[in-house]
Amino acid sequence: MSVLAAEMPSISDDELSRFADFFYRKTGIRLDERKRYYMERRIVDRVRACACHSFADYFSRLKFGGLGNELEALINEMTVNETYFWRENYQFECMTRHMLDEIARTKRPGQRIRIWSIPCSTGEEPYTIAIHILENWARADAYDIELLASDIDSNVLQRARQGFYEERALSRLPRHLRERYFKPFGPTRWQVVEGLRESITFGPVNLSDPKETARYREIDLIFCRNLLIYFDDVSRRLAAANMFDCMTPGGFICLGHSESMSRISNLFRPRQFAEALVYQKPSSREAA
Ligand SMILES: C[S@@+](CC[C@H](N)C(=O)[O-])C[C@H]1O[C@@H](n2cnc3c(N)ncnc32)[C@H](O)[C@@H]1O
């Protein structure tokens, strides 16, 4: 019996399990049965927002496309978007101390270095990457650095483009960098300066869908942090293969601290730097 039964038509175990399978096929995310209350509350909000008279009515119209852009709204509702500036900072230090130099050795000055933050959530991660490069990589001006940022959730992308943040997101960012790259907006909000906002290209991508990731090619460095924890092994392997196809040989991937590529796929080789363990697509020479 649903906890929410008194407030609205309940969702049976069988319905919830079919819904979870559908959501998994669309996103790669395995909804956690232990978070049933969280899941149900959000589904109920969507059923109400679509003025459906029952969950069954909502689910059948959703599946057959009878609710317009509802799938997008549902995904936006169900995703976990937790993020903040300077998160797992050692990886950004590793980027500016080692990985960018290695990538640059395969290019001529002036050539493009392409970095992709997926998932970028509300933008804290790609802005952190940009600030780190500007502050800490002396050769930044010698290359054409392209910074791309993607997420499946269209709401967070909209917020990322606007670049407004509060204390909670900014608390780990060193104060002098806040002064340099943000303008105060009222007593509690800060906005990323326009030049920095414009230096990042935000766009929607489902990492589980090879048709969507196919638009991204020749990526030299991917930050894919704190997403694979929501996937099962099948969708993790698919995500790894999709990222592999997007990357240049010799390119690097950084995962979240509780995520490991070695357990998922042997496409990449681990590289242990002083600051961080990262993963690398073999160079053309190694692959031959
Ligand atoms: C916890 S946030 C991680 C944000 C950032 N990378 C970090 O580590 O701080 C997880 C994000 O993954 C996104 N997401 C979930 N499934 C996705 C998918 N299949 N493709 C792309 N992004 C996805 C969610 O919308 C959410 O914003």
What do you see in this structure?
The model is unreliable at 1-6 (pLDDT under 50). The protein has helices at residues 13-27, 36-49, 55-63, 70-78, 90-105, 124-136, 154-162, 167-170, 175-181, 194-198, 210-213, 233-246, 284-287; strands spanning 112-117, 144-151, 164-166, 182-185, 189-192, 200-204, 219-224, 247-255, 269-272, 277-280. β7, α12 (233-246) and β8 (247-255) form a beta-alpha-beta unit. It folds into two domains: 13-78, Chemotaxis Receptor Methyltransferase Cher, domain 1 (Orthogonal Bundle), CATH 1.10.155; 90-287, Vaccinia Virus protein VP39 (Rossmann fold, 3-Layer(aba) Sandwich), CATH 3.40.50.150. Strands 6-2-1-7-8-10-9 form a seven-stranded mixed sheet. Strands 3-5-4 form a three-stranded antiparallel sheet. It contains 13 helices and ten strands. The chain is α/β, with parallel strands linked by helices. α2 packs antiparallel against α4 and α5 (90-105) crosses α6. Residues 27-29, 79-83, 87, 118-119, 121, 125, 151-153, 156, 205-208, 225-227, 256 line the site of S-adenosylmethionine (SAM).
Short description:
The protein has 288 residues and is an alpha/beta fold. The chain is built from 13 helices and ten strands.
Query: Overall pLDDT, averaged?
Result: 94
Domain module count: 2
The number of helical segments is 13
The span between the termini is 58 Å
Number of strands: 10
